Amino acid sequence: METNLVFAPTRQKPSAASFLWGMIRNPLDALTDLSREQGDIAHIRIGKREIFLLNHPEFIEQALVKQGHNFVKGPALQRARVLLGNGLLTSEGEAHLAQRRALQPAFHPQRIDAYVPLIAECAQECLSRWQSGRRVDMADEMARLALDIAMQTLFGDSPAGATERVRRAMMALTRLFPLTTLPLPDFARAGFPDFQRAAADLDAVTAALIASPHAMQAKYALINILRENKRQFSDEQIRAHALTFLLAGHETTALLLAWAFDLLAHDLRVQTQVQAEADRVLGDRLPTPEDLAKLTYTRSVVKETLRLRPPAWTIGREALATCEIGGQPIPSRATVLVSPWVMHHDPRYYADPLEFHPERWESIGDSLPRYAFFPFGGGERACIGEHFAWTEAIAVLAIVSRRWQVLPTTKPAVPQPSVTLRPKNGVAVILEKRKI
After folding, report:
1. Can you give the pTM of this predicted structure?
2. Other beta carbons within 10 Å of 157
3. Domains of the chain
4. Most buried of 10, 95, 405, 430, CB within 10 angstroms?
5. Cα gap 336→48, rounded to integer Å
C-alpha cells in the first residue's frame, strides 16, 4: 500500500504555539490535523524538543517493533515512577524484559480462561444491583465492575472499601494528569495534597492485597507469581507491580466497556444483534471459555469499539540514538508519537471511519495492514493483558446483553483525552430489563 506524503506538507506547518494550543484545547483534533497537514511523518519543533508523529502502519511498526530497541517510554510515563515505582509499565531494557518473562505466566491464555467463571460471578453481582427503568452512568458501573474483577482474579481478594479508595484515587490522578507533562522534579509533583491522598489510598489498598490471606488460596493469581519470584523482585518491586496491575488491570477495560455501551445505546440495531447472539450461544447459562469463541459478532463489537474509541489514544517514545524511519532522520532524544486514534480513523484503511459498523471486520480480513489497528500497542511493550481484556469485555457484554437493554438519555458521550480516553461527563443510559 502506498504511503502518503512523507516530507512535504500539504499546507504550511503550524507554529509551535498553535500546535500547543491545539493540544490543550483538543489533542485528538490537533494530532489528526497535524497528520492531514503533513502526511505519514509529521514534524514539529517545540523549543529544543523535536516531535515526530508517525501516520503509516509501516512506520509505526518500525518504531514499536523493528527498531523498538532504540526507543524508550516517553517523558510523561517516565515521570510516573514517582507513583508507580520501577514496575513493568515504567521499566526499560533488560529489566523490563526480565520482569515481563517472570510475569507472563499470570496472563497465559489458559489461566485467563480459568478466570471466566470468576468474571461471570463478578458481573452477576454487579447486575444484581440494577433496577429496571433506572438511569445509571455506565462509565461508573464498569469502573466498579472491572476493578472488582481485577482484584478477584489478579489478587484473589477484594478488601473492604478498596473499590472506593481506588476509584477516588483514579479520579484525583486524572485531574492531575497535566502535571505529568510538566518538567517538574518528582518532589514537586508529590507535594500536591490531592496527589498525596491518592498515593496514600493506592499504597494502602496495594498493601492490603499483598498481605491478604485470601490471595494464598488463589493459586494462579498474579500476587502469588510475584511472591514465588522473591529472588528477582524486592518488596518495593512487588509493590510496584501490584499497583501497576491494579490500575492498568481495570482502567482500560472499564473504559472499553463503557464506550461499548455508549455505542450500543445509540445503535439499537447492533445492540439487538448482540442480544440475539447471547441468547443463541448462552441461553440461560453463564459463559464458558468455549462460548466466548462462538460470540463472533460480540467480538466484532469489541473490536469496532477499540477502533473508534481506543483507551490508549496515543503512545509516546523517545529515541535513544539517531535513526531513520521512512527516509526521515529521527535525532536522538526526539519524541516519536504514534496514535491509535489517528490511525483508527484513517479513511485509507476504514470506509466511513467515523461510523460504528462492527460488520466491517467480517470483510476487512487480511487486507488490513498490521499496524493500522493497534489498540494494545505492539512489540516487546505490547499490553501483557491483551487476552485478559478481550476475554473480560466479550464475557461482560454477553452477560449484560442477555438480560438487559441499555437506552440512551442524551447524545453520545464526548471523548476526553487524558491519561486514557475517557467519556466526558460519563455514559448516561437507562437500564431496561429484557423480557425473555
Report:
1. 0.90
2. 20
3. 16-433 (1.10.630.10)
4. 405
5. 14
